[in-house]
Amino acid sequence: MRKPVVGVIGNAHRVENRFQVQMVGERNLRAVAEVSGGLPVMFAGSPDITDIAALLDTVDGIILTGARANVHPTRFNVDPCEKHEPYDIHRDEVALALSVACVARGIPLFGICRGLQEMNVAFGGSLHPEIREIPGRMNHRMPRLENGEIHPDPTVIFADRHDVDLTPGGAFARILGCEKIRVNSLHGQGILDPGKRVLIEGVAEDGTIEAIRIAEAPSFALGVQWHAEYDPQHNPINRKLFEAFGEALVARQKAAA
């Protein structure tokens, strides 16, 4: 049997402030290749060059990665604000439609950070632009130096920051073999109201939604707010999630054979 093909969504980026590109973090690609056992293939988060139906005829699974840009507020009926930029409206269009299509066709879908947020919005949910501004919530953004610059050490940036309580008997508890985990935190936006088919399966100690499952999905359809692509070779939580995604890819292949 061939390696499962996994589509990994790209993000709009400008190189040297001149050249428009699509890019994917290498950690995402390596997690798919080295832990899930798949062949990662980036596709553009741009609707004019990404045919979703053709894409889903080609791949065995989809990864919606984290990204710098926020989901545009008009996607959940809120006015945009400059302080919550940047946005990536083209990725929004692809990712939201893709989330619904994957679930409908039984294609494994794994949303990470922005990917979880996209899955929630795709099924009618809303987001808060800055979770840390909600009373009682912690600062979920990545660590920075005193001068405001991003911390230069990735082990500090991706260090475990808070606990997450998992739903007993839920998909995450079954995959991970426990009901409490500790995860990293690198986000500003987060789930405010869950979508109609969005089941909450993990909540941080401050009440922030950290893990979701799409109800009645025929295959793997999970989202996490933390960056599960970080060091899944050695992080047992992240490794088990990518292994479970890999098992779903193989099952999808066999069902389609």
Automatic annotation (TrEMBL):
One Gene Ontology MF term: gamma-glutamyl-gamma-aminobutyrate hydrolase activity
A matching Pfam family: Peptidase_C26
InterPro entries per the UniProt record, alphabetical: Class_I_gatase-like, Peptidase_C26, PuuD-like
Gene Ontology terms describing biological process: polyamine catabolic process
EC numbers, comma separated: 3.5.1.94
The entry's keywords: Hydrolase
Catalytic activity reported: 4-(gamma-L-glutamylamino)butanoate + H2O = 4-aminobutanoate + L-glutamate
Pathway field: Amine and polyamine degradation; putrescine degradation; 4-aminobutanoate from putrescine: step 4/4
Gene Ontology cellular component annotations, sorted alphabetically: cytosol
UniProt keyword Hydrolase present: yes
Function: Involved in the breakdown of putrescine via hydrolysis of the gamma-glutamyl linkage of gamma-glutamyl-gamma-aminobutyrate.
Family affiliation: Belongs to the peptidase C26 family.
Protein name: gamma-glutamyl-gamma-aminobutyrate hydrolase
